[in-house]
Each structure stands twice: as C-alpha cells, then as structure tokens.
Design a protein that fits this description.
mainly alpha
C-alpha cells in the first residue's frame, strides 16, 4: 500500500506496481472500469487497486474455505464410494427376478434371457477396455459423475421398456455405466484406505447383488408395478449419490494422456502378471457361477421347487451373493493363503447344489448355494489380497479393469452357452449339471496352481 505521509520506499513502489498490473489485467478481462476511467489518478488509484486486490484475495480465500467446509471427509467419501458399488451392482441384479415376468409377457426363450444378461457383460467389457484407466488421467470424480448419469438413463430405460430390444438397450447402457464406475470406485477406495478398500472391493459387489435380487423379488411379490418400481428406487439412490460425489475431494492428481487411454487396451502392471495368471482359473470359475445364478438360477430354483414363485428366483442369487459378502466381512482380514481355501468350500457347495437337483430338495439347494457363495467370497477376497498390493497407485484403475474384464467374460459367455444348451437340449437341469462340473474343475485347477506356487 502507498504511505501518504512519507515518500514511497522501494517495497511500497513494487506493491503499487503489482497492484496496478493486477487491476489492469482484471479490466482487460471484463472487470468494471478502473479508477482512471472514473477520473481517479495517483495515490487514490494505488489505494483503490490495492484494496481491490485485497478484496479479491479475501473473496477467493473465503470461497476456497467454503468449498473445504462442504467437502466430504475421507471417511464419508470412502463409504459413499462403497455405496456406489452396491447401488450399481444392485441395479445389475434387479432384473434377475423380473425375467419370468418379462418372459410371460413377451414369450421369449431361456436363451433370450442369457442374451439379455450377456449384453450387459459385453457392454461392461467394452467400457473397461476403453475407459478403464481414464480416471487415472482425468480424476475419479468426472468419471463417476458420467457413470452415474448413464446409470440413471438406464434405469429410466428399464422402467419404460416394452420389448426385448428395449431391455437389451437398457442392459447395454447399464453395462457401460457399470464398466466406467467399478474400476474407478475400486481405485478410489484404495486411494483412501488400502486395507479397508481391499475388503470393500470384495464385500460391496456381492452385497449389492444380494440386495438387488432380494429387494426386487420382494417388490414383485408384495407391491404393484414391480417392473417400474424397482428401477425408480435405484434411480432415487443414484440421485443422492451424484450429489455426494460433487462434495468429494479429488483423490488423485490428473495427468496427461486421457485421450490415449481411451484406445482399447489392457494395462496389466508388470508386478502383477504372474499372480494374476495363476488366479485366473479361480476367477473364471467363481464368476461363471455368479453368471449362471444371475441368468438361469431363478428358473432352476423354480424347477426344483415345482413352483412359479418369483421370490425363489431372487432368493437364489441373494443366497449366493449374500453369503459371499458375509464371509468377506467376517474373515476378510485373514491371510490370503487361508482365504484361498474358500475354493474347497465352493466346490463342496456346488456339489450339494447338483445333489439337490437329483433329489429335488429345495432346502439342500439353498444350503449348497450358501456354501458356494461363502467359498466364492473367501476365494475372491484372497485373490484381491494377493494382486492389489502389487500395483502402484497410478496402476490401480487399470488393474481393476483387467480383473473385471476376466470376471465379466466369465460371467457372460458361459451363461449364454448354457442358455443355448437349455433351448436345444430342452432341460435346465442337464445344463446345470454341466455347468456345475465345469465350475468344480476350474476351482480344482486354481487350487492346484496355488499349491505349486
């Protein structure tokens, strides 16, 4: 500032010059006219410029402080992102108990059910291959907001669907949204807390699948307009989460290369390759099992029970995913080697499910499903505990994309093949036998590879 009582020192001269330059820049950028335009010169202009610069600095500081005051704490941001995995996977499993309603209304075959389901998996893969590591370049928040917007559109498409083609379009939109979100959220959770993030990345997808399947089943049985109400509920949750994301603090520093990252690629960190190759058979077996329950599981449960209840379809997937989530929550902090033994539990559970088909025992079916889900959860958590610590922070989103590419391929392709087998062989039980034996073989191979290591 200018001292009006004494001659300006070199320091105050510099201050005056800096303030004047700042004011001139502001005037050129469209700010109100400067003091010269109002006939003010000399020391008055210096005083006005200094006061204006100080006011602008104070306003900027106040705005920054206000943003910080509204920003979510790291803990709140962590749970918000975990809830997003739950809501996205909840939305993906919500159609499962509704397939029987769609099938009765539009008269399509079991293979059509698996094609609808498979279109979702393919869309997820496309999103993962293109946008899987985008958040490492532009930040987590922009990718999450776009993914939520697409998921909202897909919920509206589901609620207004009037044909198989409309369902496929809705599934594709949902797949693109989920593919963009899961890798980003997975990396975001690890940004905030590596230990809890690893557990959340195992628990949240299974919890979301269980909640979606069970919730949709209950809505079908108890409330009107189930094919609209399910998606409206998810849509409301997504709106709340979008608001929460705008209050999050960005957890990664953006870096160049965003456009280049959109070229389809798989960025496998070198340090993870050996471990990931050894774990791939287990991942395929686990997620193929999930794919069967997500597409043909409801029909198998109704066949065993000789019932047309829509609730049974949702309960089958909920039992598989819910027991997996509960197992990870209870035992997720155990050593990876201990968790890998969940493969034995999954094998035993699938064997019980196959026995339940022969004995037409619904109770045995659900016991076997729960055991298979528990083994699934433990083995999947063990796989993540082995692989994730090997990746650097800037490699996390890309690594999650590779993991989900493996999982969604395993989830979608075998399910479509099983649907075709049901149509041409005419028996869902025969398809279930073949599917179950393949899952057991893959789980056994994974355990053998694990022992060799």
């Amino acid at each position: 500032m200018i001292n009006q009582d004494v001659t300006m020192t070199s320091t105050t001269e510099q201050t005056f010059l800096d303030a004047t330059k700042s004011w001139r820049r502001n005037t050129a950028d469209g700010w109100p006219a400067g003091p010269q335009a109002r006939g003010v010169t000399g020391e008055s202009a210096g005083e006005s410029a200094g006061e204006s610069a100080g006011t602008l600095g104070t306003a900027s500081a106040n705005a920054s402080a206000a943003r910080r005051a509204w920003a979510l704490s790291p803990r709140a941001a962590f749970y918000l992102q975990a809830s997003m995995i739950i809501s996205f996977l909840c939305g993906s499993s919500a159609p499962t108990p509704l397939y029987a309603i769609y099938q009765a209304a539009w008269g399509f075959t079991p293979i059509t059910v698996t094609v609808i389901f498979g279109s979702y998996a393919i869309a997820v893969l496309a999103a993962l291959l293109t946008a899987g590591s985008l958040s490492d370049h532009v930040g987590r928040k922009p990718v999450l907001l776009v993914a939520i917007a697409l998921q909202m559109i897909s919920m509206i498409a589901f609620a207004t669907a009037g044909s198989v083609h409309a369902l496929i379009v809705a599934r594709v939109l949902q797949g693109v949204a989920t593919g963009g979100a899961v890798g980003t959220v997975g990396a975001g959770l690890l940004d905030l807390d590596r230990a809890k993030g690893t557990v959340a990345n195992s628990v949240a997808p299974m919890a979301g699948a269980a909640i979606g399947a069970l919730g949709a089943s209950l809505l079908v049985e108890l409330l009107p307009a189930p094919t609209e109400l399910v998606y409206i509920v998810v849509l409301v949750v997504l709106v709340a989460q979008a608001i929460g994301v705008t209050w999050m603090t960005e957890s990664v520093t953006p870096k160049p290369g965003a456009l280049a990252s959109l070229r389809p690629h798989l960025a496998m960190p070198r340090a993870t390759r050996r471990a990931l190759f050894a774990l791939t058979p287990a991942l395929i077996g686990m997620w193929a099992l999930y794919g069967f329950y997500g597409s043909l599981g409801p029909a198998l449960a109704r066949t065993i029970a000789h019932s047309s209840s829509h609730l049974l379809g949702g309960l089958a997937l909920a039992a598989l995913a819910g027991s997996g989530a509960a197992t990870v929550f209870a035992f997720g902090d155990r050593e990876p080697r201990t968790l890998a033994r969940g493969g034995f539990v999954m094998i035993g559970g699938v064997a019980l499910v196959l026995a339940s088909i022969a004995g037409e025992s619904l109770a045995l079916f659900f016991v076997g499903t729960a055991l298979a889900g528990a083994g699934f959860g433990a083995a999947y958590q063990g796989a993540l505990r082995v692989v994730l610590p090997l990746a650097e922070p800037h490699e996390r989103a890309g690594l999650f994309s590779i993991l989900y590419v493996i999982c969604y391929l395993a989830m979608g392709v075998p399910a479509v093949i099983a649907g075709a087998f049901v149509v041409y062989a005419g028996s869902i039980t025969h398809a279930a036998y073949g599917y179950g034996l393949a899952v057991i073989a893959l789980a056994g191979l994974a355990l053998a590879l694990r022992r060799e290591r």
